[in-house]
Write a structure and sequence with these properties.
Elements: H1 2-15, E1 23-25, E2 32-39, E3 50-53, H2 66-81, E4 85-86, E5 93-100, E6 104-110, H3 114-117, E7 128-134, E8 138-145, E9 150-158, H4 169-180, H5 192-205
Parallel strand pairs: 3-4, 3-5
Antiparallel strand pairs: 1-2, 2-9, 5-8, 6-7, 8-9
Helix pairs in contact: 2-4
């Protein structure tokens, strides 16, 4: 397990250098979230079923920190919404998140749309690098394939800390939701109509 955690640290650091840009506007505020994601050409996105958190990979996390609990609870809910089961017994995906409060400079990649790429899954697809300047704080969510021992997907929202978006539980959940809008794969075997039903139940409860 220690070896896996060391590898996860290595791939987490490498994954921070990968992004594809998309802007997201929060309808209830004038604040704009910049939401981006990228993926590995080795990802097996149609085959994943389960997940677990790697808590000690989150250096900003505190056990009594309500913001960390809100983020983790919302990630857990979003994973469940698309059919992933949380387990500590050989999960398909290890999930981590990082909070960056300072400005960041990222080197990312232009890539085919992930839904287009999974039709042919060409692992030899080339990465086209581009640079991004991220400001006002960033939430980064990472998916790590334990079998392959590599980060296979990441999404993040920037421009969220130190302003109204970070002032309440409801506002803090929105960046997580926006990031998961970029991950479009149900767990293997999970019916699409079940996801629609879960979405409807969630909207009625919020």
């Amino acid at each position: 397990m220690q070896r896996l955690m060391n590898l996860f640290r290595t791939f987490t650091c490498a994954a921070v250098l990968m992004t594809v840009a998309l802007s997201f506007t929060n309808c209830s505020t004038s604040q704009k979230l910049k939401v981006e994601s990228d993926y590995s050409y080795h990802g097996k996105f149609k085959k994943y079923k389960s997940f677990d958190f790697v808590k000690d990979m989150n250096p900003n996390r505190l056990e009594d920190d309500p913001q960390s609990r809100i983020i983790e609870d919302e990630i857990r809910f979003r994973m469940g919404l698309i059919g992933y089961k949380q387990t500590d017994k050989k999960p398909d995906l290890l999930v981590s998140y990082r909070i960056f409060f300072d400005d960041l400079r990222f080197t990312g990649f232009n890539q085919p749309d992930i839904e287009e790429w999974v039709r042919y899954e060409d692992e030899k697809e080339k990465y086209d690098p581009i640079k991004y300047n991220l400001r006002q704080g960033t939430l980064l969510i990472l998916f790590f394939d334990g079998k392959q021992q590599r980060t296979v997907w990441q999404g993040y929202a920037s421009g969220i800390f130190g302003n109204a978006l970070f002032a309440s539980e409801k506002m803090l959940k929105r960046p997580v939701r926006a990031i998961f809008d970029r991950y479009r794969f149900l767990a293997e075997g999970f019916p699409y109509d079940e996801r629609a039903r879960n979405n409807s139940d969630r909207e009625n409860n919020e």
